[in-house]
Every structure is written in C-alpha cells, then in structure tokens.
Amino acid sequence: LWLTAEIVCLVRMNENLPVTGDILPDLISAIECNFQPTTDYNMRSASYMLIESVKESNQCLEIGFRMLDICFSIYVQQCGLQFILHAIRTKWPSLPPVVQQLSKDRLINCLLSSPANNDIRSTPAIMEGFAQCIVAIVECDWPQKWKSFIEDCRSISKIGPSQAIVVLSVIGRLIEDVMEFELIEDPSRNKELRTVVLDSASQFFDLTLEMIKQSNAGEIPPSSAESSVRQRMLEKSYHLLNSLIASLNPRPHLFTKFVDKILEPARDAFKSGNIPVAEIAISCLESVFPRKASAKNYKPVVIFFESGRLNFAYDFIMMISLLPFDQQNYTLLKAATHLFFDIATCFCSFWELFEIEDCIDNWDSIFRLMLSLLKHPSTYCRMWCSLIFNSMKNCKKVYKIERFAPILTELFKYIPKATLKNGEPSKAVEPFRAYAKFDYETNTAFLIDYHRLREACEVFVGDWVASNWRRAYSVVMGWLDEILKNPAEASNDECFMTTAKVIHVVLDSLVDVIEDVKKTEYTIIQAKVDAVMNALQNCQVVDAVQALVSMLSSLFPILDVSDPRIPGILCKLISSLTLGIDDPEMAEVRHHFTYLFIKMATDHQAHLIAHIELIWKEISAVAGQLSDHQKCAVVEGLFALCKLFKNFEQYAQLMSVTLQQTVEFWVSAEIMTAVSKPENFLIYIGLGDPLTNNDSLNLAYHTRRKQFSFHVKILHSVISRLEVPTEIEDAKTGGFCITDVQGNLRICHPAAELFQMMFPTLFTFLRCLKGIYSVSSLKVVHATYDKAKLFDLTDAEKSAVMGKPHETKKFKDMQRQEVFYEKMKLFLAELSDHLQHLLIRCVFAFDWQFFALPNAASYVEHGIFGDLENLMDYRLRLFLRRVITPLSNSTTEVQSYFVNGLAKLVEHLNDRLIARWHLIMKKENACEFDDEQTKQQIFTENVVSLLTRELALFLRSLLLQQDPEKPRATPKAVELPEFNSSAMDTDANDEQTSSSNALSFLGKSLLQREVNCYASLVSLLLNMLSWRESVAAFHISQVAGLAILEAVEFCFIFLYILTKHYFQLQSNGILDEESFKHAYAFILGAMPQQCLNPEFVGRLYDLAVQLYEHFRNIYPNAAQTVLLQTTECSLGDLQAFDKKILNALENPDFKSCNKVTLKVKRDWFKSLIKKFLKPLKTHQVRQIFGELPPLQRPSPQPFFTSSISPNTLPNLFQES
Fold first, then answer.
1. Cα–chain center distance at 847
2. Separation CA 230–CA 414 (nearest Å)
3. Per mean pLDDT, which range of 261-275, 830-844, 881-895, 1165-1179 is the poorest?
4. Are residues 654 and 614 part of one domain?
5. pLDDT band for position 974 (cuts 50, 70, 90)
6. Which end of the chain is more exposed for a tag (fewer CB within 10 A), N or C?
7. Looking at residue 1153, what is its pLDDT?
8. Final residue in a domain of this structure, among 871, 905, 936
9. Cα separation of 1054 and 1067, whole Å?
10. Does 799 fall in a domain?
11. CA-based Rg of the chain, rounded to a whole angstrom?
C-alpha cells in the first residue's frame, strides 16, 4: 500500500520531475512490478499509471535511453525502447535538429555496442524494438535528412549477426509499413516513401544478398547460441527477399532488373540442404509467378523462362520428389509441388498469350516433372500436379507439337496408374500409407483430393484426344483388346477400373472428331461393339460387367443412327437396370447404368430418339423391378429425350403415363389429412408410437416414408428436365400457345394443369414440414425417442457448417437406434429440401398459369413464406438461396405477388439475426467455457456467419436494379460466388461491382408505407454493415445508402433503429434528425470493423460523404455532431472538411459523380477520420517481423468501435 501511494504521488509530480537517480529506481520497480504475474490489481494499476505518465512526459526520450543500459532486465530495456519509439512517433518533428541527430546517434551506438554474448540484447523482442525505433526515424527523415541510411545499414550489418538481424527487420518493416499497409498517416509522405523504396530496390536487393552470403560465410559457430542467431539471420534475409519481391508484384516490369538477384539466392538455398531456408526460398519464387493476371503482368515474367533460368528449380523439385519419406523432406516436397504448380500455371497462361520460341524448352521440363510427380506415392502431390492440366486447356496447341509426342504419350499411358485410389488412410499400404497418414485424417478428406486428381486427369485425356486422337485411340484399342480376351481375369488387375474409365473417357471424346474416326476406323468400331456385346453375355464379375457396360454406352454413339446393332445395344443396356436384381453385389452396376441412362439421354439424343418406342417398351417391361431412385432417374432421362420433340401433346401424354400414381397419391384423402398439420404427419410416419423393434410395424412406417420421398422426387425430376420453348414461333409450332380473352398469345406449360391438381396438398405439406420443428408439434412425438437426435441437422449439414469434408457413416457399424435416427434426419431434410425446391421452380416455371389460380397469393405467402420461424438457421440459408435467382430474374408482374411474403421474411430475419448477434457477443464476454461449450459456440458462429453472408447476397440481388445488358443467372446457378477481392471497390469504381445505382422494383415496393417493413429492412442493413462479416458488409454497403435516401423521395412513417423506439418523419417525408443521427452513427461505426479490408471500405467512405452532402442542408449539425462524438476528430478539421464539401457542392465540376470527384471527396473524408481508424489498423495488421510485447494493462476491456446492441453502442443522444 505504501508503494502504491508513493507511485501515485510520483505520477502527479512527474511533469516537473528532473531526470535524476531518484525517479529511475522507482520507475524500474514499477516496470518489474507490472510484469510480475502475482501483482494484485491495485499495485498493477498504480505501476501502470506511473509508466504511462512518464511515457507521456517531455522527458520520456531521455529516460528511455537511460533504461537501455545492458545491466537492466529485458522488461526494463523493452519499456525503454517503447519510450523512445513513442517519443519518435509523437514528438520527433518538434525536436531541434541537434537533438534529433543526437538521439539517432545514441540509438545506433546502443545497437553497435551490444555485446555479442549478451542474452538480453540478442532476444527477438529487444532487436525488434531497436528496429521499430530506427524505422520510425527513417519514416520521418529518409531520404532528406538521412541520405546515408542504406550505407549505414550496410555498415551496421557487418558488425555481427545480431546487428544484421536488426537491419533486416528495419528494411522489412519499412517495406511493410510503406508498401503493404500504407501506415504513414500523411498520404503524400507515404507516396513519397513508396517512390524512394522502389528507386532503392536494387540497393535493398544487394544488401540482402550480402547478408545471405555473410550468414553462410565463415567457420562453423562454436556455440549453439551463435549458430541459432546465424540461422535466424539467414531466414530473415530470405524473408526480406520475399517481401522485396512481393513489393514488386504490382510493378512486374521491374522484375527484368532483378532476375539474377532473385534466382541466385534461391539457387543457393536449394543447394544448401537447409530445409527451413529452402522453404522460404520456395516462397520467394512463388511470389514471382502470378496465378491470375493480365497480359501486361505476364510479359515481364518471360525473362524467367528464357535460357533455362529455371532449370535449377526443376532439378531441385525432381530431386526432392525422389527422396524417401521423412516429415521434413515431405513438407519441403509439398512446398516444392506448390511452387511447381505456380510456375507451370503461370507458364501456361504466358504461353497462351505469347508463344515465344526461346521458352519452349520449359514444356519438356514441365512434362517430365509432371510424369515424375504423378508416379509419386503421395496423393496430395499427384493431385496438385494434375491441376496443371486444367491450366493447359487454353494452350492445347502444345499437344500437337511432334517434339512432345513421346513424353505426352507416356503421360497418357500412366494416367490409369496415377488415378489409383491407393492413398486412402484406412486401406493404404506402404509406400502409400506413410503419406496418407501424414496428409489425411479421414477417408473423406482423401476422397476430396482424389476426385480433384481424377477430374483433372480426365481433362487431360479429353484435351489430348481432341488434339491428337489417333495416338490416344491406338493406345486404348490395345487396352480394350487385352480386356476383351478375358474380362474376368483382366478385372483382377489393380488398374482395371481406372483403365476402363480412361477408355470410357477416350471413346466419349471421340464423338467430337467422329467424322474423322468413321472415315478410317468404322469397321473396327463395329467389331469392338460386337466383341463387347459377346463379352457381356458370359461375364458375371461385377467390375468387369460395369466396365463393359460403360464401354458399350460410349461405343454406340460412334455408330450411325441407322446401324442395325443399335436396337440390340439399347435392349442390352436397359436390361442392365435390373441386372442381377437379387444379387446385392450387382447393385453397383444397376446404379451405374442409371447414371449412364441420364447421360445418354442428354448427350446422345439423336441415337435414342430414333428408337423411342423400343426404349419405352423395354423400360415398361422392367419398370416394376426398378427401385424408387431408378424410376426417378428413368423419368428424368425420358423427359430429357422429349426436348427434341418440342411438342405439347407428347409432353402431356408422357406425364399422364409416368405421373398417374403420383397424382393419385397426393389427392387422396388419407395423404391430405396426413399433411394437414405437423402433428398428423409425425403420427402418420410413426413417431407417435413408441420406439420398437417390431419389424412388421417398422416396415409399414418405412413404406409410408418411402412413398413420400418417391412422389416428391419424381415430381422434382420431371420439373427439372421439362423445358418449354421461350420463343412464340417455336411455342406455336409445338402447340404450347393459347389465346387469352384480350387476344394475346400466351405460352402454356404442359405440366401446369396436372400439377395444379396437387398444389393444395403440396403447399400445405411444405408448411407442415416447416412446422414439425415447433414446440407444439414435438409434443406428439413419443417419449421413447430422443428428440434432440431426431430433429437435429444431418451430419452432412454439420460438416458443411464447419467447413469440413463429410465422412459418410456406414450403417452396418452403427447400433440399430442410431441408424434409425440418422435415416430419419436424412429423410426429413431431403424431403423438405426437394419439396421446397420443386414448388419454387413450379411457381416461376408456370408463371401466369400459376398466378391465375384462385389461391396463388395464399400459396406464396403462407406456403413458401409461411412458418419460416421454425426453420433452422442453416436451412433458412438454403431457402434464401433457392428463391433469389428465379425471383430476381422474374418480371415485375410476378414479383408483385411476393412483396407481402418478402416483408414478413425481412421482419423475421431482422429479429432472428439481431438476436443471434447479441447471443454471440454475450457468449464471447463470458469468462469460462468448457470444451463442449466452446465447440457449440464455434458452431453457432459459423452458422450465423453463413446465414449473414447468404442474406447479404440475397438483399443485394433483391433490392438493386439489375443491368439489362448483363445475362441473367439461370435457375440452376444457386451456388454462392467465390469472394473476389480484386473486383471490389477501391477507388470509387463501382463499375466492377455493380452496374446500377438504383433500387429495383422490389426494393422500392418493400419501402412503401403500406408494406410496413421499412424499419426492419433499414435496421437489418445498418446492423449488417457493423457486423464482423466483411463479405456481407461489402454486399450491403451500396444497398444501405439507397434505402436511407429513399426516405427523402417518399413520405414514410417510421424508422426503427435498434433502440426499440419509433421516430416519426417530418411532414415533408425527410427522416427526423435523431433517426438520421443513428443511421449515420452505424455507418461510421462500421468503418473500424472493416478498415482492414481496404478493397471495399472505400464504399463506406463514399456512403458517409453522400449522406453528409444530402442531409447537410436539412439537418446542418446532425452529421457533424455524430462525427465529433464518434470519430473524435477536431472541430477545426471538421469545419475545414465542411468548407470543402460546400465548395464542391457549389462547383459545377463536382456535380457529376464520376470516379475523380468521388475519389477526391473520399480522400477528404479519410483524412478527417484517420485518427479514428489508425489505432485499430496499426494494432491488428499482420506484422511479419514481430512486435514488442505490450505492457500488462491492469484491467483489459475489449474495445468496440461499433456494435449492434443498445447496451454496447455509446449512447450518443440522451433522448434516444
């Protein structure tokens, strides 16, 4: 207590305290006390106060230098460096030149005088502290006042490894601050330093190479400590080299000056045998080659591919690939494989553009290295190597160069072996086992990479056939002859199935060159077809039968349509649907041909349509033996065939035959009663009875569930394949048109009349399925069931939430009850998803025919948008994804039916997401978590993140007017696009991101008074701006401003912003002042949250400026008040900004919102709030070269610059 009181007294008198021996002991005691873990709160607070007060005093620079005495502890020296750094950053320009020079000399002398054997001075924290201080001076003085900076760095680096490490950190930090993060507050100074750094790039390269040689030179260090320091110096040298290369990436034309300075150290690293350094050198080379870039960025890289400059890299990768398995060696090989992928991908892109003859030798090296890697036991390396085939799609001319024919033929012949599934962790044997265990935790994770490997290899096979079909044909015909000699015996070979797959791909690819094939090989093809048919007669081996069926399905399209063999082939293929119906082992063959039938009906319609009656007869004969899955697939194939007819009557006739039982099922009184309420449905499928082992009862309920699944899936199969002509002339020819009462021609959908008979039941069932998750519905489920397991997400959905590959469970390894729970969850999830997708497609496909129904509005509002509150977050996300594409592509007439449903959806989403965000923030502030709670918290955050992103994309597509010149998305395009930061708005260039600055019809409709969802919509938009999801904020940033400005155009009544209060609008329709203040505060609060994403935070700046301008005359002080209280900018700066805006508004040159004017205004605004964003930006940016450990604050509290909660958001306005 006495020490605490004394420290407090020292704090108060510190401003006038002379630097004597009196203050230093107390300050040192306070520092040591601060870093002791046993220090109590009061003592830590008092010591922290003293340290901070000294740090803020005018004497902190002198005290800091005094604390660098080598006799002090690491904590004291660290604090001294922080004092010096603080003084340089805050007081340096105001110091007299003499003091500046003296301080710089003292700092360098302290560094130079550091003993080589001093453990404290050689610690990373202290060396990084010296580096930070020097960088701070450089950023102020270089080059004007410190012209010899680079020479001084060279001199300091030669004294010893510790000093060299500091120099490396200085240059690295300088490049990082100036080039990468642009941390210099003054933009003009940052621009000046950027120019100087680029001009000095050659000297920096030379200095880095000198330090690399310095670290490798000399005798082996006598101690492990010195050896460790030298290794750190070497690694830092290569890290700096990587930073230098990265800084040149936006300016690839500079590469031509530094080719040898980049390649020489990489070559030395590869020769050294030093694995950590070799890995960094690999990163250096990776930084050189852009994966995706424009032609101007590829051209400078040409010099790297000339004169065999990269041969050393190819040789190194080849050498590493031949080493036996060892964790270090294999880690290096994976890095080298990534490097090879980057080099090869870049070269493919470059070759497509330039095709320079001097670089052609690289192809030979690339192909030989690919062959070597494809022979490697590691599936991971084979997969990355195979991905190069995808990059070669645009340079297929290489396949035609005779020089590369032998190596390409060898590559082709090895594809069956390269695509073997020999790396599965649970089954792998040596030498594959060690690599499989190292790379994959589960079989599912392996299968993801394996499928990527196989697909890429199939791309190569198809491309090579298209470019050089004779060589491929010759090889596969030889393989086919070997198989046909004895298929059963051939199937014992490990490569049998992969060889058969390659044969199948080659034969499929021959269709593209079919005329050339028929000219010389037609009789041979006919003979092969006969041989395969004969082999199928006698073969009973499952793998052999499956392979032969695949080959036959690929051979028959090469035959003429009139060839007499085709009817027999079709009969044989269709009989494969029921092949070995009682043999479980033949199930694989039956399902395989089910897939092939859809493929044939889609790709080879001409051959099948000529024999449609035969196909129908054969399918009718075996229809009773088909499984539900096969029936749906066959119906899908038949409707795919009917596309060629384009005839309304034939569609109607086909539907009446295939869907008769389905219509009877859905209109039956029993089913209508079962789906009328969630409780009825749960009882109907057996969940109202006790969990039992009674097989007959379980079978009865199982049959009911299968009926529901089948009759939904078959409708889905029909509607997904049935296509209606969109052009009036085509529709008239096919009988699809009728004339309405006004005399206008209307296109009819052939399924509309049949489906509308089932709509009452189907839409009721859709709402019923959403309601089964409600509390009241769950009461009918018998107590013997575990409801948490029964109505949970499926394992596949959980894996998708966590971003993990899903490993399919094997039911035979599970207990009976667990199997039941898994199957029931899957049944409910698939049934709900398929029915939802089916009805949404029906609504938009039937168009006017649907909305002519008496209950159409009710179907939409209560069926599609009803009971959404019972949907789980993940499935609500899927619902948004299903509905947005067809809705945004529809006409305004159709969209008008969705306004009320969308209004309910927006209100519900606003309530749901704000509650989820509050829950996440509350959990984050909780002190204690066990492992289970932590897992649940991570899962919840991931689900909410997925939903937030999906909703942002949904709202942006819904509310913004689409560009009529851009092609509309197809209904199948339901996947989220990849997040492309390069397409984001960095300089007010919205041309890349959005073609429109206007609200769509739906956007304006949802903001009308009658709809009454404006409050929820704006609340949702503003909260999403402030939430941590950067992708969501990007999509919402443009929409939010348009929604707020819409209030000026119309006379709305209410705006609801988080505080649970309603704010009335003034009579002229403008938002009232308090409402505008809250909206503006949210937009400002979003900036710190997104400031680390410069790709699109500029859009927030533009929005803030736009609102400032728009409301300046309406509420003159509103935006200024929010800016002063939220960003803590000075009144003088704000007045200067306001004057610039006023002048801009009066200047006719600024009235057009072009890129130039927007960028000027953005720069004004960024300069105004720079202090608001700076602390977060500098605190959170990635620091490659380390950071000084911070002082231990007495009571750390999380700092929120923006929030969605009225409890955490600063209360800017007392009345609110």
1. 34
2. 46
3. 1165-1179
4. no
5. very low
6. N
7. 53
8. 871
9. 12
10. yes
11. 36
Element housing 745 (H / E): strand 745-747
Interacting residues of 106 by C-beta distance below 8 A, sequence separation 6+ = 65
Q: Are residues 625 and 676 in the same domain?
A: no
Instruction: Count CB neighbours of 1001 within 10 A.
Output: 15
Q: What distances in angstroms separate CA 925 from CA 578, 919, 1058, 1179, one per listed residue?
A: 61, 10, 20, 21
In percent, the amount of the chain with pLDDT more than 90 equals: 37
Q: How confident is the model at residue 1054 (pLDDT cuts 50, 70, 90)?
A: very low
Q: Which of 871, 905, 920 is the last residue of a domain?
A: 871
Residue 1199 lies in a domain: no
Q: Do 841 and 930 fall into the same domain? A: no
Does one domain contain both 575 and 605?
yes
In a domain, 303, yes or no: no
Domain count, the chain: 3
Mean pLDDT of the chain: 82
User: φ and ψ at 266, to 5 degrees?
Assistant: -65, -40
Element (H, E) at 1202: none
Q: Give which of 900, 603, 943 is closest to 799, Cα–Cα.
A: 943
Residue 313's pLDDT band, with cuts at 50, 70 and 90, is very high
Name the amino acid, one letter, at 499. T
Q: How is residue 250 written in tokens?
A: 């936006």
Supply the range of the domain harboring residue 1034.
Answer: 892-974+985-1180
Q: Which helix (H) or strand (E) holds 1064?
A: strand 1062-1064
Q: Token pair for residue 421?
A: 């599934």
- Give the pLDDT score at 1155: 56
Whole-number pLDDT of residue 928: 60
772-to-321, 512, 780, 797, 922 alpha-carbon distances in Å: 56, 51, 10, 18, 29
- Predicted local confidence at residue 628, as pLDDT: 86
Query: Rounded to 5 degrees, what angle do the CA atoms 1126, 1131, 1133 make?
Result: 95
- Of residues 685 and 351, more confidence is placed in 685
936 shares a domain with 862: no
Are residues 1014 and 1136 both part of a single domain? yes
Whole-model pTM: value is 0.75
Angle at 826 between CA 825 and CA 830, to 5 degrees: 120
**pLDDT tens digits along 554-590:** 998 899 988 899 999 989 888 888 877 777 777 777 8
d(CA 254, CA 258): 7
pLDDT, residue 370, reads: 96
Q: Are 282 and 317 in contact (CB under 8 A)?
A: no
∠ Cα 1106 1108 1110 (to 5°) = 65
Tell me the Ramachandran region of residue 686: left when phi exceeds 0, alpha when psi lies from -120 to 50, beta otherwise. left
- The tokens describing 217, both together, are 């030179």
Examine the pLDDT at 1215 and tell me if it is beyond 50.
no
| Angstrom distances, CA of residue 288 to CA of 210, 246, 475, 980 | 21, 8, 39, 21
The answer to whether residue 499 sits within a structural domain is yes
Tokens at residue 198, please? 């680029």
| Token pair for 1139 | 């004057």
What is the band of 988 on the pLDDT scale with cuts at 50, 70, 90? very low
pLDDT digits (tens, 9 = 90+) for 289-310: 876 656 666 677 888 888 889 9
What average pLDDT does the segment 339-352 reach? 89
Q: How far is the CA of 643 from the CAs of 602, 638, 647, in angstroms? A: 9, 9, 8
What average pLDDT does this structure show over 1153-1168?
76
Cβ atoms of 1007 and 1014 closer than 8 Å: yes
What are 1184's two structure tokens? Answer: 């490659």
DSSP assignment string, 1123-1143: HHHHH---HHHHHHHHHHHHH
CA atoms within 13 A on the CB side of 527: 8
Looking at residue 428, what DSSP letter applies?
-
Mean pLDDT of 54-81: 90
Distance CA 1134, CA 1120 (A): 7
- 1008 and 1155 belong to one structural domain: yes
Indicate whether 805 and 753 sit together in one domain.
yes
